[in-house]
Design brief:
The chain is α+β, with helices and mostly antiparallel strands. It contains five helices and eight strands, in the order βααββββββαβαα. Among the domains are: about 40 residues; about 80 residues.
């Protein structure tokens, strides 16, 4: 007895072709907004922290004091160490952040909006991804219009006002009403 060969019902040539990933736009920018803090800022901050430490010392909150010291050290390093210049890439399938080989696919991203921080334009992209909920990219001014045109093909543009939460509003109020350095 001869075995019958099963022939496929669909010819191999009729299978849909997988779309190749194509780079649409690439730009280089700092990995985070950066501004070097001056001496006035640090003397004011240390004076306020000394008062807070004194109160916490009298209450006996050692862990809270340690966590504040850790936070101040982190903030100090972020304001004294200059960020790297990194390259971001937008393709027809998604966005690559810096040197990360993982892509944020367009179907997981929902909307985008622009913000300003310390003189830098920030592109915010919200997605259905758990962490981070919002991707933030520093963008140089010459790249801003072209990026908006490219991203508008894939995502809906939102207004920044709609996306501001309680923490954003609170930090803006504190920076406006209790500045640690004078504006020049």
């Amino acid at each position: 007895m001869e075995k019958e060969k099963n022939t496929p019902s669909v010819p191999v040539d009729d299978n849909p072709k997988i779309e190749q990933e194509k780079t649409i736009y690439t730009w280089k920018a700092f990995e985070r907004p950066y501004v070097k803090k001056n001496r006035e800022f640090w003397t004011t901050a240390i004076a306020i922290l000394a008062l807070v430490f004194l109160i916490l010392f009298l209450v006996g909150e050692w862990l809270f004091i340690a966590s504040i010291i850790a936070f101040v050290f982190l903030y100090y390093t972020l304001t004294t160490v200059r960020p790297r210049l990194i390259e971001h890439t937008i393709t027809n399938k998604g966005i690559y952040y810096a040197d990360n080989p993982n892509r944020y696919d367009w179907d997981l991203l929902t909307s985008f909006w622009w913000t300003e921080k310390w003189g830098y334009s920030i592109l915010n992209i919200e997605g259905m991804i758990r962490f981070p909920g919002v991707l933030q990219f520093v963008v140089n001014e010459p790249d801003k219009k072209e990026l908006e045109k490219v991203i508008s093909d894939y995502l809906e543009k939102e207004e920044e006002i709609k996306k501001r939460n309680f923490m954003d509003k609170s930090s803006d109020w504190l920076m406006k009403n209790l500045p640690l350095e004078s504006k020049k």
